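User: I'm writing a short methods note and want a consistent example. For Mitochondrial carrier protein, I'll paste the sequence; you return only the structure tokens, no commentary, since I'll be parsing the reply automatically.
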Amino acid sequence: MNGCICMLLTQPLDILKTRMMNAKPGEFNGLWDCIKFTSRGGPICFYKGFLPSFIRILPTTVLSLMFYEQLRQNFGYIPNKKAAV
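Assistant:
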């Protein structure tokens, strides 16, 4: 869930970074110029490529949670005694 929220918040920045990296020298006068150019296509332009990024993150998140639970069950979990008081 956190990965999805993070992607929703950072996808527009990734789009702007990619546009500026691939731009010819002098195509944009700065970040604000890149934002204005990208916004001509509407808000959806800031989320191009969201689905492939989401599909890339989904298996990583699922596997991490699965391995974490298995390791915790196999090696035990020792609660902090001070926090329990």
